[in-house]
Amino acid sequence: MVFQDLEVESFYRVLAPRPTILVTTTNQEGRVNAAPFSFVMPVSIKPPLLAFASVPTHHTYQNLKETSEFVVNIPSADILRELWITGEKFPSGVSEIEKAGLTEIPSTKVTAPRIAECIAQMECKVFWIKDAGDHHLIVGEVLKAHVNENILKEGLLDVKKVKPILHLGGKNFVVGDNLRTVD
Q1: pLDDT, tens digit, 9 for 90 and up, residues 48-74
Q2: According to the 3-state scheme, what is the secondary structure of 23-84?
Q3: Alpha carbon 66 to its chain's center
Q4: Which of 30, 47, 76, 124 is deepest in the core (most CB within 10 A)?
Q5: Sign of CA dihedral 31, 126, 124, 19
Q6: What is the rounded CA–CA span in Å between residue 18 and residue 21?
Q7: Is 114 helix (H, G, I), strand (E, B) or coil?
Q8: 20-151 in CATH: which number?
Q9: DSSP three-state, residue 161
Q10: Contact criterion met (CB below 8 Å) for 20 and 167
């Protein structure tokens, strides 16, 4: 096997494809923001914690600093185009959910709404935030989790049915519907 050098600033390109989420937040005035992220991972089961990384200039980051809460929405391939629209640069106060033609539904534990077209949602409060280079790492405690009743098969995500969105880089995504089981 022959290896080539990779610029260290591009290290994350080989940590792909990555799960893609839509994070919804509100600011103190109640204006909603939605944005896609693929720098995301579970952190702990007890307590239930998840993390994602955001550039500190994003509206999402500014909102969660103000309110300390957010919702992680899990999209499927059915809304890939809409997910891409939410990533566009809109002025503060413009609803990405509305621009993308998605539907807000109320959360039960936080102010930020859930997105109805997503297959699952996790309502979170900020557990901690740490500077991490050009991003900030946000760890949230999951207060409530919602899941579409048709997406689980034997307790696992039915990837053949759901076709989760995995971010490869830029405008490139993998639709994860090829399941292999290790014997």
Answers
A1: 999 999 999 999 999 999 999 999 999
A2: EEEECCCCCEEEEEECCEEEEECCCCEEEEEECCCCHHHHHHHHHCEEEEEECEHHHHHHHH
A3: 19
A4: 124
A5: positive
A6: 10
A7: strand
A8: 2.30.110.10
A9: helix
A10: yes
Q: Which residues pair with 22 in a beta bridge?
A: 36, 73
- Is the Cβ–Cβ distance between 61 and 131 less than 8 Å? no
Domains in the chain: boundaries: 20-151
Top-confidence residue, 93 or 5: 5
Token pair of 88 as six digits: 């566009």
Give the separation between CA 153 and CA 171, rounded to whole angstroms.
30
Phi-psi region of 101 (alpha: psi -120 to 50; beta: other; left: phi over 0): left
The Cα 129–Cα 54 span in angstroms is 10
Distance CA 88, CA 100 (A): 10
pTM of the model: 0.93
Distance CA 177, CA 5 (A): 31
Residue type present at position 84: W
Q: Give the span between the Cα atoms of 52 and 75, in whole angstroms.
A: 16
Give the count of beta carbons closer than 10 Å to the beta carbon of residue 138: 25
Strands in 49-54's sheet, in edge-to-edge order, are 32-37, 21-26, 69-74, 120-132, 135-147, 49-54, 40-44
Residue of 96, 88, 90, 151 lying closest to 118 (CA atoms)? 151
